[in-house]
């Protein structure tokens, strides 16, 4: 995660780093968790090595974070990054699929991968003595995957089944459509899996072309956490990844790769009266990872809160919106969110309700709560939200894999990794006025993106919802 104070000086810092002639760039930038220090080295080809050693750990997580996901695709090859993830463990020029699986099992290691809109990640958790072998396996997978025609054809059916399963998860469907309307016709608005026609038509040439364009050393971070030694991992990186090429015009980590997406105020409605619930997501354009208001956005999100009737929480235990929704039986659950990307984001709420005749009342109390953020949010609410946010951030760093994820994601999206102690200081400094200023800047009279799915007849038209944002400040 990125700290605003650090980002104010990030441009100057990166410029100074770029001028350094030495191969080893920065060491011991700051304390991150439990007294551990994140160390960094950039190789000659641009690949960054980042570690956070735990002296008494017996296991380590090592992985490669790549600044490339579905956002690096075009409409024609959308789904390629995810397709590659499926093929990563199907054999290389050195190992068959069976040999790869047996080698991992014999090490007692866990190997995994995932694709997001902006990142592709391959990582493994292993015993400390097996770190060299694990790094070699990751290197082999990334640089020598066979991409055999038979494996490609078999994975089409697997991905199609995965896509069908995603279609049954209404939250996933709603957020995919929300991105599609918020960033219409742009890469960030496309799904990670890609459309069915692309899954059926992606070729080996598409896959190799994507690798050639995006799997570049200057767009990668090799991360090691737990039982790792920084110098040893740097040596392994030079051995296993030293021949990896850089981009034609090498950019520093965290530098923009594409133009900032344009947020579009619009909506999509998928009415299905056979569904007993209405699923509704409403979002404003949010903040990027590097925005100075990033943590203020998270505090504002925490003020609005989350609630689920099935968890049995009392209406007095959460936010003001929790009380209004629970006491008036307006929804089954709601979840506020602040989703960030490298240069933009989405900030809003996801509602699920079975009270189909009160949808208008539900949206009214939501907008009323957003109005309070810009006018009359209390110090007690802000302090509670800050405490919840800090606890959430610290709990999310429990374990070597979680810490590796934090380091990798921060570095590929912003070029910096900020210690949790500094994050706590930033959050502690956020005031009521900061939250109000955020709401007035990002919510008041701003366009909204809306996605509604299910029994949504009771949801009023877009213009009525949009007009409510114009009164948020008053």
Outline of this structure?
The chain is 43% helix and 18% strand.
What strand order characterises the main sheet?
Answer: 1-2-3-7-4-6-5
Radius of gyration: 23 Å
- CATH superfamily of the largest domain, please? Metalloenzyme, LuxS/M16 peptidase-like
Major sheet: size, sense and barrel closure? Answer: 7 strands, mixed
What would CATH call the architecture of the largest domain? Answer: 2-Layer Sandwich
Distinct helical segment count: 18
CATH class of the largest domain: Alpha Beta
Shape: globular
Report strand %.
Answer: 15-25%
Low-confidence stretches: 1-35
Proportion of residues in helical segments? 40-55%
How many strands in all? 13
Class derived from helix and strand content: alpha+beta
Could you say what the CATH topology of the largest domain is called? Cytochrome Bc1 Complex, Chain A, domain 1
Number of domains: 2
Kindly report the average pLDDT value. Answer: 89
What is the CA-CA span between the terminal residues?
A: 33 Å
Description:
- The chain is built from 18 helices and 13 strands.
- It has 474 residues and is α+β, with helices and mostly antiparallel strands.
- It folds into two domains: 238 residues, Metalloenzyme, LuxS/M16 peptidase-like (Cytochrome Bc1 Complex, Chain A, domain 1, 2-Layer Sandwich); 204 residues, 2-Layer Sandwich (Cytochrome Bc1 Complex, Chain A, domain 1), CATH 3.30.830.
- Strands 1-2-3-7-4-6-5 form a seven-stranded mixed β-sheet, with helices on both faces.
- It is globular.
- The N terminus is likely disordered.
